[in-house]
Design goal:
Number of helices: 6
Strand content: under 5%
Number of strands: 2
Helix content: 40-55%
Distance between the termini: 80 Å
Shape: elongated
Structural class: mainly alpha
Length: 291
């Protein structure tokens, strides 16, 4: 049945081609030169018809070339799209492998997919965010937690730099246990980090503008020169953290714990910290108060 359909399709295309060819080489030249044969010789009339044929053949060739380019471009797009899908599927599958080196490779493969196909960046952000949350749940006994896994650190690195950091989909690491994580100079604007554990993390120069850090653990973290403007830090724990030169303008610090927090050179607006909080923090004399 399928074979017969193919035969009919080929016959239809062949018949259409023959009709078009006859029209171009015979019928149209006669029609277009009709009424113009008065006063000219048969040779001149034949030449005029041949000129029309040449013009029509040129137009046909140009049309065929345009159609060919269109199909070639479409084929290339479909092939490229298929390759991206295959690479994405393979990398996602490798995230579940036992070999940590394979998982690290999968993380960087997804980053490359995001570079080659920006429209898939949001999906990759969601996948890697889910991977980190699943790999780093809140432990029953924090004392038994070992150093941060290299594949998790690789995923965080990728999430914190372009192109994924520019995705419209926010990084979602809510509740993730990431003690000691390195987010130096990473871009996590608007990230969802509610109740995340970033204790003793290296967050120097990190950008967390507008990030949701309510109830997050940032005690002992190095946040020097970090961008925390308009971040939600309500009830966050910042004890003994270093916020030297950090931008905290507009951040919600209501009920945040800042015992022993180093705030020298930090930028804050008046009223963001209560007198009680200021009494607990260090370096408050050198805060850059902004209106």
């Amino acid at each position: 049945m399928r074979r017969w359909r193919r035969v009919r399709a080929v016959l239809a295309l062949t018949l259409t081609f023959v009709v078009v060819l006859v029209a171009i080489l015979w019928i149209l030249p006669l029609l277009l030169t009709a009424g113009h044969d008065d006063g000219i010789s048969a040779a001149e009339l034949l030449k005029a018809q041949n000129d029309v044929r040449s013009t029509l053949v040129t137009l046909l060739a140009a049309t065929a070339a345009a159609i060919g380019l269109t199909f070639t471009g479409r084929t290339y797009f479909l092939n490229a799209s298929g390759q991206v899908t295959d690479r994405y599927s393979k990398a996602v599958g490798q995230l579940g492998e036992k070999d940590v080196a394979v998982r690290v490779g999968a993380v960087y493969a997804l980053e490359r997919v995001g570079r080659d196909s920006p429209r898939d960046a949001g999906t990759i952000v969601e996948v890697l965010s889910t991977f980190v949350r699943a790999a780093c749940p809140l432990p029953a006994d924090p004392a038994e937690v070992s150093a941060l896994r290299p594949d998790v650190q690789a995923a965080v690195n990728v999430l914190g730099r372009a192109p994924l950091s520019r995705s419209s989909v926010p990084v979602d690491l809510r509740g993730a246990y990431l003690d000691g994580v390195d987010l130096t100079n990473a871009m996590f604007d608007g990230a969802l980090l509610r109740a995340a554990h970033l204790t003793n993390g290296r967050l120097r120069g990190v950008s967390l503008q507008g990030a949701w850090l309510s109830a997050a653990r940032l005690d002992g973290a190095d946040l020097e020169a970090a961008g925390l403007g308009n971040a939600r830090l309500r009830e966050a724990v910042l004890d003994a953290a270093i916020l030297k030169g950090a931008d905290l303008r507009g951040a919600d610090l209501d009920a945040a714990s800042v015992t022993g927090t180093w705030l020298a050179g930090a930028k804050l607006r008046h009223g963001q910290l209560t007198p009680a909080q200021l009494a607990e923090a260090n370096g408050t004399r050198n805060i850059h108060w902004q209106d």
